Amino acid sequence: MSAECFITGGSGFVGQHLLSRLTAKGHKTWVLMRTPGNIERLREQVGQLGGNPAFIHAVEGDISREGLGLSEADKQNVSSATVIFHLAAQFSWGLTLERARAINVQGALSVAKLAASQRIRLLMVGGFMLQNLTHLNSIGVDITCPENTDWPAVYARVGGYEGSKLESHFAVIRYMQDADADYTIVHPATVCGHSENGHILEGQPFSELIRNLAQGQFKAVPGSVRHWLPLVSVDYLVKMMICVALDPFMANRQVLALYERTPSLQGMLLQIAKTLDVKAPRRHVPIGLLRSLLTIPGLATRFAISAESLNFIQVQRFDMGMSRQLERKYQLTHPNMTRAIENTVRYVKDYVTKQ
Ligand SMILES: NC(=O)c1ccc[n+]([C@@H]2O[C@H](COP(=O)([O-])OP(=O)(O)OC[C@H]3O[C@@H](n4cnc5c(N)ncnc54)[C@H](OP(=O)(O)O)[C@@H]3O)[C@@H](O)[C@H]2O)c1
């Protein structure tokens, strides 16, 4: 069955792969674009990823604007969608609270408002740390009553990006529940490239990690031998997103998209280093110590690492019950992740050496 979809963040890394999969399956898509003039480039990119560019249509707008800045005609176009996939986000370290909130929280609420007013299912992309309740408690998020959370204090602890992703998650759920409207949330682990061709965009956390290792900036492994950075391949992620978005059972539910057998960070760095043919760091540095070292002016730049990125390296194991249930239902399996990592490393190495 073909369903019309409205997508925010379609030009981003996950967005391009989502568009590729949706259009290859014959779904007509409306993509919110701040610069609609870039639509031809996006179509070309999606075509290269195996999608059907003819099913992609641009809608001009910006999530930080009132009503997403949509024209009346585009509001009408979008109203025929069955699902709104909300992926747009300001995804970078060092964001101020004001900027992170304006885009990641208010923007998400504006998308939720549109979905609720048109009675369209909202598929929102969260992040795996939202399923790490120990972490949420430790940074001061009140899980039982999120409205009581001192959000500026949380932003001060974890940075603008993560703070705003957490705040928007609870704010959107609250909004959709009050409006009696349907939502589904997918929480991805750190996204690695496409399992077959390794495609990943520059600036992604995983491609930056590979680049840092390639350029010899990784001097030690952050954390202990138990620390890990859970991964998911972008192809598994978008398949899961599409399945749950169209599944009535998934109304008002959440699921993790995470490969639970991702190796420890040490093991992963070893694997990446082997493919890059460089030395892997062997010594470990406790996360707390590294965090304080990074407050020394110049060190974060020298080691090309941000304290905010350390939040995602942890020892927590996750409850994968819902993911397993859905994998059985949709006959969805993770690809061979050793190969996915290897292909991503080769893809990144290619553009790092060209620079
Ligand atoms: N990648 C990961 O490892 C990872 C892990 C967990 C969760 N996530 C979440 O997954 C989602 C997608 O991530 P991604 O990696 O694909 O991000 P990305 O590559 O950085 O793409 C971000 C997208 O958001 C759009 N955008 C930014 N500000 C906007 C605004 N004001 N109005 C409209 N569009 C705007 C960008 O459009 P332009 O082309 O106009 O800049 C771009 O299409 C995000 O919500 C992110 O938090 C990602």
TrEMBL record:
UniProt domain Thioester reductase (TE): residue ranges: 7-241
Pfam families with a match to the protein in the record: NAD_binding_4
Taxonomically, the superkingdom here is: Bacteria
Among SUPFAM superfamilies, the record links this protein to: NAD(P)-binding Rossmann-fold domains
Q: Please give the PANTHER family that the UniProt record associates with this protein.
A: NAD(P)-BINDING DOMAIN-CONTAINING PROTEIN-RELATED (PTHR48079:SF6), PROTEIN YEEZ (PTHR48079)
User: Can you say what this protein is called?
Assistant: SDR family oxidoreductase
Source organism (scientific name): Pseudomonas capeferrum
